[in-house]
């Protein structure tokens, strides 16, 4: 059994939770298999933007939440100083074997902690593509440095990484090269593994779904062809194409209705959804559009049951190239036919295996035509849904997606270059504060927070090399390696 400090984002998916996102789903995707395999997991969850937090300074920063007989700690603050101090306290007080940081925000925080424990950093989604698309929406590139600094913290320290797609894996390896991690010590080190987004376990369980007609006949007509959007409207969503395609399709299919859960993403993107609502009403079909906002998680299952097709519409951007879409895997796992623009690696898999409808990004007419076709071909639609469900059961369960992580947890270890750092600087507690090659030294010189540490590391290394036993130990290490 391995004792793990897991740091993720939440709150975890639960019946009464309204604002949850892909990061929260990813946290449980990592945590559940670790528990099932007998490891002791102490999960600490960062609050997601938009969740009410305590403003009382006398209340503890962490509160305990119980989910299905599993308890975890949820931060009641977003103050990075308090969060870092609490996590450092946990690390110092418990005999952990490793740290697993789930999602980019958690990875940036975990990799700033003072510890020489092995760290697995899950970079779920391409953060620089996200920074670029956010810059377009907000007409500013000021986010680029902020996002890169968070990414670079993890790249410089973690021992293993996971990504949500093979394309993101290649991008991450390129980034690792830029910060000096692709060096002579790591030539054969498996730095990055792909962990595709899994179907959230309850969507694969038929018992999760209520009897039909919870929404059908209540919120939209009983005979409607219901098109479902489920989740936030992020910076990479092509809302103009979505509104245009819906209006074209609704003209041809009078019984077509659009149902949307989610909306603006508090603290991240509060413009895209407002733009969509405005554009949608300008089409003249607003009376057939049902915008439900952020609903409680328990309602999602009824919506999936009552709708006929689930959709995803991406704009042309690099986040869509390297990223993925939880909404699609969950819809497929729930047996709901999907229609998406072709962009993410997941949509390429859907197209190749005929698991749903796929159309080019930006092609409004093709998207509308696919909606009309789906409305008129229920047998074809049902066949796609069946194939998608079976594909998910074979490829997108927690167990199948987490194999590499579970193997590493059995015997977690530092990356070879981090082992070399620890050998050269045995007293160091922050492995990212020391360098073993010129590229890493360059990175430290350009980081004001690291300048003092770099100067000290050079002094320490000079002192070590001056000792007669240094060459002896280097030879001994080479002999035994």
Structure description:
The protein has 481 residues and is an alpha/beta fold. It is built from 20 helices and 14 strands. The model has no long low-confidence stretch (mean pLDDT 90).
Number of helices: 20
The CATH topology name of the largest domain reads Rossmann fold
Structural class: alpha/beta
Give the number of domains.
3
User: Can you tell me the CATH class of the largest domain?
Assistant: Alpha Beta
The quaternary organization reads as single chain
> Which percent range fits the helix content?
40-55%
Features:
six-stranded parallel β-sheet, Rossmann fold, 16% strand, single chain, 481 residues, eight-stranded mixed β-sheet, alpha/beta
What is the secondary structure topology, with strand pairs?
Layout: E1 3-10, H1 22-36, E2 40-47, E3 62-67, E4 70-75, H2 80-93, E5 98-102, H3 104-110, E6 119-123, H4 127-138, H5 143-157, E7 160-163, H6 166-178, E8 192-194, E9 225-230, H7 239-252, E10 256-261, H8 272-282, E11 289-293, H9 297-306, E12 309-312, H10 318-322, H11 326-333, E13 338-342, H12 345-352, E14 357-360, H13 364-376, H14 378-395, H15 398-401, H16 403-410, H17 416-424, H18 438-445, H19 448-465, H20 469-480
Parallel strand pairs: 1-2, 1-5, 2-4, 5-6, 6-7, 7-8, 9-10, 9-12, 10-11, 12-13, 13-14
Antiparallel strand pairs: 3-4
Quick gist of this model?
This protein has helices spanning 22-36, 80-93, 104-110, 127-138, 143-157, 166-178, 239-252, 272-282, 297-306, 318-322, 326-333, 345-352, 364-376, 378-395, 398-401, 403-410, 416-424, 438-445, 448-465, 469-480; strands at 3-10, 40-47, 62-67, 70-75, 98-102, 119-123, 160-163, 192-194, 225-230, 256-261, 289-293, 309-312, 338-342, 357-360. By secondary structure, it is of the alpha/beta class.
């Amino acid at each position: 059994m391995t004792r793990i400090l897991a740091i993720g984002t939440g709150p975890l998916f639960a019946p009464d939770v309204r604002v949850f996102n892909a990061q929260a789903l990813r946290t449980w995707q990592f945590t559940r298999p670790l528990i099932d395999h007998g490891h002791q997991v102490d999960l600490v969850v960062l609050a997601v933007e938009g969740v009410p937090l305590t403003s009382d300074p006398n209340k503890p920063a962490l509160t305990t939440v119980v989910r299905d007989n599993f308890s975890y700690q949820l931060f009641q603050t977003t103050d990075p100083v308090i969060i870092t101090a609490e996590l450092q306290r946990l690390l110092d007080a418990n005999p952990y074997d490793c740290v697993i940081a789930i999602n980019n925000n958690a990875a940036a925080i975990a990799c700033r902690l003072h510890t020489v424990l092995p760290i697995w950093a899950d970079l779920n989604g391409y953060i620089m593509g996200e920074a670029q698309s956010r810059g377009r929406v907000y007409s500013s590139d000021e986010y680029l440095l902020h996002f890169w600094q968070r990414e670079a913290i993890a790249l410089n320290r973690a021992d293993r990484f996971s990504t949500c797609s093979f394309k993101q894996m290649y991008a991450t390896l390129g980034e690792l090269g830029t910060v000096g991690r692709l060096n002579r010590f790591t030539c054969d080190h498996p730095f990055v593994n792909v962990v595709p987004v899994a179907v959230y376990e309850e969507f694969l369980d038929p018992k999760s779904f209520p009897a039909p007609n919870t929404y059908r006949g209540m919120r939209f007509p009983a005979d409607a062809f219901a098109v479902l959007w489920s989740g936030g409207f992020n910076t990479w969503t092509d809302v103009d194409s979505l509104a245009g395609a819906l209006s074209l399709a609704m003209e041809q299919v009078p019984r077509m209705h659009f149902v949307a859960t989610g909306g603006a993403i508090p603290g991240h993107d509060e413009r895209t959804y407002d733009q969509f609502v405005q554009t949608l009403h300008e089409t003249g079909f607003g009376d057939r559009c049902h915008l439900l906002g952020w609903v409680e998680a328990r309602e999602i299952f009824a919506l999936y049951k009552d709708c006929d097709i689930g959709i995803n519409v991406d704009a042309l951007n690099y986040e869509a190239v390297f990223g993925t879409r939880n909404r699609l895997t969950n819809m497929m796992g729930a047996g709901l036919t999907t229609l998406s623009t072709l962009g993410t690696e997941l949509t390429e898999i859907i197209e190749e295996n005929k698991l749903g409808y796929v159309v080019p990004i930006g092609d409004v007419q093709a998207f509308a035509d696919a909606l009309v076709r789906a409305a008129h071909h229920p047998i074809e639609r049902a066949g796609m849904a069946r194939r998608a469900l079976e594909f998910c059961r074979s490829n997108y369960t927690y167990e199948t997606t987490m194999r590499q992580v579970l193997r590493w947890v059995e015997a977690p270890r530092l990356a070879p270059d981090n082992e070399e750092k620890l050998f050269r600087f045995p007293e160091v507690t922050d492995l990212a504060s020391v360098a073993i090659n010129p590229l890493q030294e360059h990175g430290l010189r350009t980081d004001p927070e690291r300048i003092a540490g770099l100067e000290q590391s050079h002094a320490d290394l000079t002192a070590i090399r001056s000792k007669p036993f240094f060459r002896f130990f280097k030879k001994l290490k080479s002999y035994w390696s």
